[in-house]
Amino acid sequence: MINKKSILAMTVCTLMMVSANALAELPSGNNDNTINTNPGNDAGTQGTGGVVHFTGKITDASCNISTDSAGQSVELGTWAATYFATQKETTRTPFHISVEGCPDSVKSVAVLFDGTKDSTDNSLLGLNSAVDSEGNTATGVAVKLYESDRNTQIKIGDISRSVELAEGEDSKTLNFYANYNATAETVTTGEADADANFLMVYN
């Protein structure tokens, strides 16, 4: 499970490794293990420096994703292609992701949704290559995700709003909505399936 703060910690490790390589390239005669930060007169006028301070935290564990959330299938319904001639979006369908067994160190939880982005609108989830009984995949339509308020879009590749865990609480259900969203003036018939990957983000 990926922790947002752990990602920051991994970035720090990368910076430290680069610094270690720089140390390895020092001339062998330099035995005091210090780096000369004075580039000399040939470097031109020197300005003021500063410090970049990285912070982060490694937690003891993460929550467990409930069994019914890990591989769920959300039915968005069957819609006539002509429907999209007057309507851009279909009815929103609810779905949820639940976590349990959260340690005390987890204070809030959110979801990062990822997957194949629609080629016309990269904020939407593109359809996969599944076909119907006639061998067709729908075109001109994609899947749109929403927060629990049914109005705030969650763009593919973005993190949802965080939901806090009360003191002593070790489980939480995050509610979302999804629907079809037209991406072209003409929508053609066919299978309209899409797959969203998700990662839990803890704070």
TrEMBL record:
GO terms for biological process: cell adhesion involved in single-species biofilm formation. It comes from the Bacteria. Residues 1-24 form the signal peptide. Residues 29-42 have a biased composition (Low complexity). Residues 28-48 are annotated as: Disordered. One of its GO terms (cellular component) is pilus. Pfam families: Fimbrial. Residues 52-202 form the Fimbrial-type adhesion domain. Gene3D superfamilies: Fimbrial-type adhesion domain. It is found in: Fimbrium. Belongs to the fimbrial protein family. This is Fimbrial protein. It comes from Pseudenterobacter timonensis.
